[in-house]
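explain this chain.
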Amino acid sequence: MKARVLIRPKEGILDPQGQTVQRALAALGFDGVGEVHVGRLVELEVEDHSRVAEMCEKLLTNPLIEDYDIQLVTSAEPPAPRSDGDVRHPAGRDQRAEA
């Protein structure tokens, strides 16, 4: 079974990466963007999903400053976007191809 763990800074914890992204988006003309938080996604193939929370507490997160959510993935769900920027958005690709 696959488990996805979304890790992000706890509420009230300074997020310098998020602040940098927020400022950069505004500088690029993307108005109306509120708070930005940068986190990470960890995908695990596990035999016993009941131990994923323990993995998070002991290794994957820093429980003092990070929160996490665990999502168990069935085979029918689409794969998560890749971290190499290959986020599929047909309209965006078509617009870039025409430009």
